[in-house]
Design goal:
6 helices; lyase; decarboxylase; pyridoxal phosphate; catecholamine biosynthesis
């Protein structure tokens, strides 16, 4: 069973405290996918979203998504390593060595299908050394602040609506109106090539997603993005109304 912390469409969170005991009782492997949101758990104020993680058998997040590490780098934990290594363990004579049963060596070829693996932990180590815990926490907190800034700008415009709670660095919003109207707005935004947005469907509604993820983003960029979206919406609504009257 895969529970998600920070879903791709709207960054929603499954209730681990409800799902976990059921999985444990029924002997179902519970995996947690926290690909994007997992980076935020470096900040104490977001760790309540992890409540129930103790029921999980495995947990994964991607430092390359929001923790300043270059693609690709995924971090995965397993509660009981023998469950994983027992599935992949391969012991031909030419791969055996004197330390394999000592418990002193973690032989990662038993953790995956390929025998070899890239040294991804090195680039994660460099980022941790360069930024430190406080630097990485501030990076996450800054993006969350900026997402709430964008949310506030959207809420000030009565033509728009917020479609999901803003928890981390993602704002889901749309023009009040038809899906076709919002599809046209997204098309005009992306064709202008000033910013780029990716959509999703939430309860049959076509929704625009404003994701803050650049290392160098500042408040001025948020204001620029909103002014750009707002102006394109104004232009679109004029055209939309004219076409409607003509019909």
């Amino acid at each position: 069973f895969c529970a998600t912390l920070g879903t791709t469409p709207c960054c929603s969170f499954d209730k681990l405290l409800e799902l976990g005991p059921i999985c444990n009782k029924e002997n179902i492997w519970m995996h947690i996918d926290a690909a994007y949101a997992g980076s935020a758990f470096i900040c104490p104020e977001f760790r309540h979203l992890l409540n129930g993680v103790e029921f999980a058998d495995s947990f994964n997040f991607n430092p390359h998504k929001w923790l300043l590490v270059n693609f690709d780098c995924s971090a995965m934990w397993v509660k009981k390593r023998s469950d994983l290594t027992g599935a992949f363990k391969l012991e031909p004579l030419y791969l055996q060595h004197h330390h394999q049963e000592s418990g002193l060596v973690t032989d990662y070829r038993h953790w995956q299908i390929p025998l070899g693996r890239r040294f991804r932990s090195l680039k994660l180590w460099f980022v941790l050394r360069m930024y430190g815990v406080r630097g990485l926490q501030e990076h996450i907190r800054k993006h969350v602040r900026l997402s709430h800034q964008f949310e506030h700008l959207v809420l000030q415009d009565e033509r728009f609506e917020i479609c999901a709670e803003v928890v981390l660095g993602l704002v889901c919003f749309r023009l009040k109106g038809s899906n076709e109207l919002n599809e046209a707005l997204l098309k005009s935004i992306n064709e202008a090539k000033k910013i780029h947005l990716v959509p999703c469907h939430l309860r049959e509604k076509f929704v625009l997603r404003f994701a803050i993820c650049s290392r160098t983003v500042e408040s001025t960029h948020i204001k620029f993005a909103w002014q750009h979206v707002s102006q394109l919406a104004t232009d679109l609504l004029k055209t939309w109304e004219q076409n409607h009257h003509q019909q």
